Amino acid sequence: MPDENDKPTGIADTNYRDYFGLLRPKEGLPFDESMVIVENEGEAKTRIIVSLKAFLETSYGPEGENPLEMHKPEHSYQLAADVVSDLEAIQRISPDLVGPANITLDEFISLGHDSIERSVIKKGVRARIRGMWPDDLSGNVTLKEGGVIEAGFETMFTWNLSQFDVSDIELSAVSDPKDLENPGNEFASAVYTWKVIQKFVIKVGENEKGEPLYKPAIEASFEDVAHRVAVTLPNFDFEATLPDGRKALRVHQPYLNEWSTIDEIVIANRDLRGPCGARDFAGFYPTGDAEFREINLGVRRQIEGGILGVPIEDRIAIARKILGFARTQEGFVLHQKAEFEAILKRSVIFNGYEKDGVRYMTPHEKAGELVSYFRGEYTKFDENAEVSAERYRRMEQRYGSADPKKREEELAAKLSDDSEFASLLKEFGYEVTGFEAAETETGKLLNELNSTS
User: Which pLDDT value is given to residue 14?
Assistant: First the structure.
C-alpha cells in the first residue's frame, strides 16, 4: 500500500489529524441538556434533517437573519438530493463502495456544508471568511468574536462561538490558537453539522448507579464529516490558462485529490460542477447570477431606491461588473470540465496507484462502470460554455464592453436610456420596481434554446 507520506501536502498534516482525536464521539455518556433522546436511528435521521434545514431557513432564507442569493437553503437542499441520487446509483454498481450509512451521513453533510456563512463587506463587495484548517485562512481580515476590527469593513453575520459549542477543541492542537477562535466557514460548518448529528442520542445501558447512559443514534466521527466538507473549500485563480491558451477563472478544490473517497468525489463534483456540468443552461446560469448578486451587495444598495436617480457614472460601473462577470462564465465552465476530467484520471479508485514503476493498488473492479456513470451525468460542460459565450456576446453587443480599457462613451450612451439600464439589471435577476424593462438578451436566448430543444 502507498505510504502516508506519498499523500499530497495537507492531507497528512499534523494539525489536520489533531482535530480528529479531539472531537470523536464518546459512547456511554450520562444525559446532559444538550442531548435529545430518540427511539432509533430512523427518528434521529428525520430530526437531524429537520434541524439542519431549520437552521438554514432561519439563517439564510428569505425571512432569515441574513438572506442570501446563492447560498440560500435551496442550494443545500439540491446538493443533498443530487448527492443521495449519485450514491444510490453507485451503490447499485458497487455496494462495497457505498452503504446505507454513507448515504445517510452524506445527506446530512450536504445539508450542513454551508451552515456557517460569515462574511465581511468592503466597498460594497462581500468577502467570505473561507477556511477549513488554519493554513487556509488568508490573514487579510483581522477578526474578533462578534465582529470585525479592520477599518473599512462592516459585519455581515455576527459570529458567536459559544452558540455552536466548540469549547471542547483544545487550542494547543493548532499552531496558532487565534485560528480556532475565528475558524473559517468550512471548518465551522463541519463542527456545526457534526454537533447536530451528535445531539440525538439513544439509550445504551446504565452505569453502576443505575443511571441511564446514551450514545449518538447516528455514529459518525468528526473525521467523517470534516473530510467531506473539506473538499467543498474553493480556491480561486483569476488568470488560469485554458488548454487553448486563454486566461480564465479557475475555481479549484484543493482537498479533492487522488486519495479522496467516493463520497468526497460525489460531494465535491455536485457542489461545484453540478450546475455547469449536469444541468442545461437554464439550470446553470441562475446560479452564477445569484453568486454575483450575493457578492456584489453594493449594486443592490445603489438601485434599491429606484433606478431613475442612479447617475450615469454609477450605471457604467454597475454595467462593467455585470458584463465582466458574464464574460467569465465560459472560461469558468471550461475549467470545471478540466477539473472533472482530472479527478477521473487521478483517483486511485478509478486508476489504482503506481509509484516508481511499482503497482501498489489496482483500480476498483467496477472502475469502468463508475467512470461511465459520472460521464453520463456530466454531459453539459461544452453546451454551457458555448451558450455562456453567446450570452456575453449578445450582452456586449447590446450594452457595451466589459473591458475597462475601452471608451465609456458607448456604455454611457446606451445606459442613459432608463429602459436599457433596467434591462441590463434584469439580465442578472435584479428586480427593477416601478419601471418596465425591455426584453433581455438572456430571455431571448432561452426562448431560442427552448424552441430548438
Answer: 30
Q: Which residues contact 265 (CB under 8 A, 6 or more apart)?
A: 231, 256, 343, 347, 349
Q: What are the CA-CA distances from residue 24 to residues 10, 17, 172 (Å)? A: 21, 12, 17
Which residue in the block uniquely carries the three cell numbers 491558451? 245
Q: Which three cell numbers stand for residue 95?
A: 455496494
pLDDT value at position 408? 81
Q: Is 374 within 8 Å of 344 (Cβ atoms)?
A: yes
- Please report how many Cα atoms fall inside a 13 Å half-sphere around the Cα of residue 79, on the Cβ side: 31
Residue 427: what residue type? Answer: E
**And the C-alpha cell for 211?**
443511571
**CB of 318 closer than 8 Å to CB of 412:** no
Identify which of 271, 277, 260 has the alpha carbon closest to the alpha carbon of residue 336. Answer: 277
Distance from C-alpha of 449 to C-alpha of 453, rounded to nearest angstrom: 6
CA 244 to chain centroid? 28
Q: What CA–CA distances, in Å, run from 178 to 116, 181, 192, 311?
A: 18, 5, 19, 44
Residues 135-192 have pLDDT tens digits of: 554 433 333 333 333 333 333 333 333 333 333 332 222 233 344 445 678 888 988 8
Sign of the torsion formed by the C-alpha atoms of 192, 193, 198 and 201: positive
Coil, strand or helix at 252? strand
C-alpha cell of residue 290: 445569484
Three-state DSSP class for residue 246 = coil
Cα separation, 288 vs 70, in Å, equals: 8
In angstroms, the Cα distances linking 338 to 6, 110, 253, 332, 335 are 24, 23, 12, 10, 5
Percent of the chain beyond pLDDT 90? 61
pTM of the full structure = 0.86
Q: How many other C-beta atoms can be found within 10 angstroms of the C-beta atom of residue 308?
A: 10
Average pLDDT, the chain: 83
What is the three-state SS of 115-153?
CCCCEEEECCEEEECCCCCHHHCCCCCCEECCEECCCCC
Residue 253: all three cell numbers together: 478544490
Residue 120: how many other CB atoms lie within 10 Å: 21
> Contact 134/10 with Cβ under 8 angstroms?
no
Please tell me the predicted confidence (pLDDT) of residue 77: 99
Distance, C-alpha 52 to centroid of its chain: 16
Amino acid at 11: I
pLDDT in tens, 411-440: 899 999 999 999 999 999 999 877 766 789
